[in-house]
Amino acid sequence: MESISFKEFQKFLKENKFDLKATQNKLCFPIIERLYEKMVLGVEFDPIKVADESIINGHHRYISSILAHFKLERVIWTAPKSVTHFSWEQIEIDASDWESETDIKAHNEKDAQRAGMNIERFNILLKTKKDS
Asked: Of 23, 18, 64, 29, which is closest to residue 45 (Cα–Cα)?
């Protein structure tokens, strides 16, 4: 999959079963897109935190990794005392970006370093991936 549209993503969440349960009720589509693009490039990410088959931290990474067929590490974590579960098909998908340009730049710099390349080369690869 080269990219995914907002409507395709909505359909993906509604029509698929996932092995982990969601503990947040909203996802940011632009974050999903950015993570997906980076995973396709092979950038490594921090593991997601999981307690009793529930995601405690890493919802965006988890879903992006499934879309990108990317192996993402999981670590056992302690769940908060009160955990609420949400069905994936009912999760709200926000089309607006939750991150500022400064946040995105900082993530890209960190991810370029993880990928072992300078930020200029990394940005070129991301742009090339987006344009294809």
From this structure: 64
